[in-house]
Amino acid sequence: MGLRTYIRENFIEDIKPYKPRHFRKPGQMLDIVSAWKGLEQIVEDIIDQFGLERDRCIEFGVEFGYSAVVFSNYFKSVTGVDTFEGDIHTVNKNEHFEETSRRLASYPNIQLVKSDYKDWIARDDQHYNLAHVDIVHNYAETFECGLWAAQHSDCTIFHDTESFPEVRRAVKDLAKKTGHKLYNYPEHHGLGILVARKK
Ligand SMILES: C[S@@+](CC[C@H](N)C(=O)[O-])C[C@H]1O[C@@H](n2cnc3c(N)ncnc32)[C@H](O)[C@@H]1O
């Protein structure tokens, strides 16, 4: 492969810093511990800046429901997929599907599904306005789940791009593979934002 071909095939524009125009706190939030805390202030800004419809949101990695409840303020329906068993990076490794379902019962637009993301993406072919990937923070899982999410949504966001280099690397590779635009918001452990380019 010549140098020009190599550069063309591997070129990725620098990640653009995401600059929120407005910080707005959603009306409904859970008062629980979460590394996601703080990001709730920019979700509506992301929806507005990228002109997203507010119908359907899917989340991979719900844990106790902090981010799922944030999304429920803005989307008619939120589907939350999680094994509810934790992973190598989470403190909690006890099964908690029933407990979390009870906690989120007062948010009728959230549907929780106890499933590995691998099983879910093998059978779901629907389209979402926003997808959120916050599962185990390894390269392979983030890339596989993120690729499906990028192909089935208008905008995919990834938590922990600052605190987990493997997540950041997967997100950069996804931008290269899909040709989507990539932004990064560095606060609150980092949020990568992949947006499909308008045709
Ligand atoms: C960092 S936590 C999610 C935090 C959550 N978004 C919040 O708002 O606090 C990661 C979650 O991903 C889930 N998870 C890890 N690997 C998974 C997989 N392969 N499929 C589905 N869920 C997975 C874990 O069970 C855990 O609950």
TrEMBL record:
InterPro entries: SAM-dependent_MTases_sf. It comes from the Bacteria. One of its GO terms (molecular function) is methyltransferase activity. One of its GO terms (biological process) is methylation. Pfam families: Methyltransf_24. Gene3D superfamilies: Vaccinia Virus protein VP39. Transmembrane segments: none annotated. Keywords: Methyltransferase, Transferase. This is Class I SAM-dependent methyltransferase. It comes from Dyadobacter chenwenxiniae. The lineage of its organism: Bacteria, Pseudomonadati, Bacteroidota, Cytophagia, Cytophagales.
